[in-house]
Automatic annotation (TrEMBL):
PROSITE patterns: GNAT (PS51186)
Keywords per UniProt: Acyltransferase, Transferase
Species whose genome carries this gene: Methyloceanibacter superfactus
Molecular function via GO: acyltransferase activity, transferring groups other than amino-acyl groups
Entry superkingdom: Bacteria
Protein's name according to its UniProt entry: GCN5 family acetyltransferase
Statement: the UniProt record of this protein carries the keyword Transferase: yes
Family annotation (PANTHER family): AMINOALKYLPHOSPHONATE N-ACETYLTRANSFERASE-RELATED-RELATED (PTHR43877)
Length: 168
């Protein structure tokens, strides 16, 4: 008799060939989860960053990219753009609010802390700023970012990790 486990949430590195799927998660997350904070035109301009899926995959490949899976299927991803900055953190709308973002953020914070980073920063969208604030990130400044023909607001937020800054 074979026992089958319930689908479990896990994280792993991005695999070659996943760029298209992660671009889809990126676009779906923006178009379905940010409507209370951004106009449809802003959402379209933001999501357009993944229109060229090969370029988007290369961008993710150039960063440390981790993928959250549920039952083995990718449901979200996050990146460290630099050792001390989260670049992307996106969750598929079908699993929003189920802890996927927290698992990704935990993993990114652990990697950054393991690299000796004293604090981690993120340019959080208005939609995500509450999520990051609940995790201990503190707003530092408001930003306006040009995306195509649109301007999008976000907030740079920092969280101390307890690591040590390494002298250069």
């Amino acid at each position: 008799m074979n026992a089958q486990a319930n689908p479990t949430l896990a994280v792993r590195p991005m695999l070659p060939g996943e760029g298209r799927l992660l671009a889809e998660i990126f676009r779906s997350s923006i178009t379905e989860l940010t409507g209370e904070d951004y106009t449809e035109m802003q959402q379209e301009a933001w999501a357009a960053a993944a229109e060229d899926e090969a370029a988007f995959a290369k961008r993710l490949g150039d960063q440390l990219t981790i993928v959250a899976t549920l039952g083995g299927a990718p449901v979200g991803f996050g990146t460290l753009e630099t050792d001390d900055k989260i670049g992307f953190l996106y969750v598929h709308p079908a699993v929003a609010g189920q802890g996927v973002g927290a698992v990704l953020a935990d993993a990114l914070e652990k990697v950054a802390g393991g690299r000796g980073v004293a604090s981690l920063k993120v340019d959080a969208s208005d939609t995500a700023s509450g999520f990051f604030a609940r995790r201990g990130y503190v707003p530092q400044q408001r930003n306006s970012v040009r995306c195509g023909d649109e301007w999008l607001a976000n907030t740079t937020m920092h969280k101390p990790l307890g690591g040590k800054e390494t002298a250069q």
